[in-house]
Amino acid sequence: MLDGRAALKRRLPPRLLLSSIWLGLLVIMAVFAPYLAPKDPLAQDLMLGRLPPFWVKGAEPGFFLGTDSLGRDVLSRILYGSRLALMVALIAGTLTCLIGATLGLMAGYLRGWVDLLISRGIDIWMAFPPVLFSILLIAVLGPGISSIIIAIVVIDWTRFARVIRAEAMAQGAMDYVASAQVSGRGRLSTMVAEILPNVLPTIVVLLTLEMGIAVIVEAILSFVNLSISTDDPTWGGMISEGRTSIHQAWWVLVFPLITLFLTVLSFSQLGEGLKDRYDPVLR
């Protein structure tokens, strides 16, 4: 019995399990927001402004997490805000991973002028302050989901490229790569079939971390009103509004802030848990 429990624990690390549960709940929240939200997230009623959560005296039935200063339901806005957060995380994280990992893999394995060109590009690109660069891009492109995604991809591809380049260089010096080359396998085939599977755990970890970073970037841009329309529910926008009324309605700030924190933490812990489980070196 104890051996079975120990084996189950090895198969399911706690941080991998807990982060997967939270992110799974978040996906359900985003997909089924129209059915789970008790109220219209855009509906305003000044007579219901700053109602407390259901367990606090003065709460109204149906407003489980209270309302903001305009009488909008906090729970409904959090549910709808998860849609934008996950959309940005998935699309921006995937595009950033594809671009950065491809360039890093090429630079680390092909070396020569390819490595020189990509490495110098990374150095130049990383000289720009990322937050200021993202705000500048949004100001030029205009607010919107597509602008946020473009800004994240343009800024963060260097993170993938640098790490994967170092991993590819280390793997390229291994004996199995030399054996593949001696057997007559081409450079491109060796890179894809031999090196890529061994750097894939690192790519997965970086991808999950990047998704968490994308959620933070979107929240920051929403906080300074550079995301989508200020009326649409976003976690950053809710935090920005709650900051101004923290003493009168703390719930407007606290609940979206907790949701944002758990989401970012879950993405990071998911990556670490997947690495512990699937990294061939650790295994």
Provide keyphrases for this structure:
283 residues; 73% helix; single chain; elongated; MetI-like fold; mainly alpha
Record field, number of beta strands: 0
**End-to-end C-alpha gap:** 24 Å
Uncertain stretches of 5 or more adjacent residues: none
Strand content: under 5%
Q: Structural class from helices and strands?
A: mainly alpha
What general outline do the C-alpha atoms trace?
Answer: elongated
Order of helices and strands: HHHHHHHHHHH
Q: Can you tell me the CATH class?
A: Mainly Alpha
The CATH H-level homologous superfamily: MetI-like
Instruction: Give the proportion of residues in helices.
Output: over 70%
Number of helices: 11
Task: Give the biggest sheet.
Answer: none
Question: How confident overall, as mean pLDDT?
Answer: 83
Briefly characterize the structure.
The chain has 283 residues and is mainly α.
Topology at a glance:
Elements: H1 2-11, H2 14-31, H3 33-36, H4 74-110, H5 112-125, H6 130-141, H7 145-172, H8 175-182, H9 187-223, H10 235-244, H11 251-278
Written description of the protein model:
It is a single chain. The protein is mainly α and 283 residues long. It has one domain (13-39, 61-278): MetI-like fold, CATH 1.10.3720.10. Helix content is 73%, strand content 0%. It contains 11 helices and no strands. The protein has helices at residues 2-11, 14-31, 33-36, 74-110, 112-125, 130-141, 145-172, 175-182, 187-223, 235-244, 251-278. The longest helix is centred in the first third of the chain and has 37 residues, at 74-110. It is elongated, with a radius of gyration of 23 Å. The two termini are 24 Å apart. The mean pLDDT is 83.
